[in-house]
Amino acid sequence: MKAVLILLALPAILLPLACFVYIIIQALPALNWELLMGSNTTSGSLFAGTAGTGHGLWGQISGSLLMMLLACFLAAPLALSIALFHALWASPYQQRMMVILLQVLQGIPPIVYGLCGLIVLVHLLHWGISLAAGGVILALVILPLLSSNAIHALERIPIAQTESAKALGLSVGAVIVRVWLPSAWSSMLTGLLLAMARALSETAPILFTATVFSGITWPDSIFSPVTSLQTHIFYLAQEGSNAHAVDMAWASAAVLLGLVLCFSLMARLLRRYEGAL
Question: Residue 43's pLDDT band (boundaries 50, 70, 90)?
Fold first, then answer.
């Protein structure tokens, strides 16, 4: 039975590993420091200076990170509030409904969020294609993940700790600050890192709401458009007849994969640290 289970698990391990290795092999010819931080050595290429092949990928990397940070800044307080309401004031029926609703929201395809953002934020509210619109939509995408993680983190706190704190006369606010948050911070931080990785990997929501192909290294304001690695790969991959553009797409994919892996590995290490405690 153990051998059968190992055989069944091998595709789930080997296929992603094979994809990772293939991406790195394809990206190696174009990966270099000048590509990441900027160079004018390829100013004569078709996409020079505006598509990440002439001025590097710094604009795309910074745009992706800015949207990720804005999304987490908006979603994290809401997720914590939802978890606290679930733990303190919601009835058992409301708790079940909240969990079901979060599961439904988490299952909605990201492109639906992107279309809603295009209609509501870009057109109705006249935000335009902007960092703000992309950050709000990504916040909605990661909110169910963060909320569910925060709810589970609070549920894992031993009831005896909470009852002891209340018996000592601590108010609800003091219980939250002195008992719950110190006990649950590592689990919540793990969920936040996973949400960061999720935000970095989403393309469809920001394709409609936040990003342009080229011409921007740093947004002028929160209501200015940005470039991102996700949409940069999408646009370059459409230039299949241009070998240089395809090479840049593979290199951009490797950089994006590296960023996602960094946050995922940090979450994994933090979870191991939490288990050791």
Answer: very low
Q: What percent of the chain has pLDDT over 90?
A: 62
Rounded to the nearest 10°, the torsion over CA 82, 84, 89, 92 is 70
Give me the long-range contacts of 42-47 (CB less than 8 A, separation at least 24). 42/244, 45/244, 46/239, 46/242, 46/244, 46/245, 47/214, 47/236, 47/239, 47/242, 47/244, 47/245, 47/248
Residue 229 tokens, joined = 């690695």
Task: Name the amino acid, one letter, at 270.
Answer: L
Collapsing DSSP to helix, strand or coil, 226 comes out as strand
Rounded CA separation 175/162 (Å): 7
Tell me if residue 211 falls in helix, strand or coil. strand
CATH class of 59-276: mainly alpha
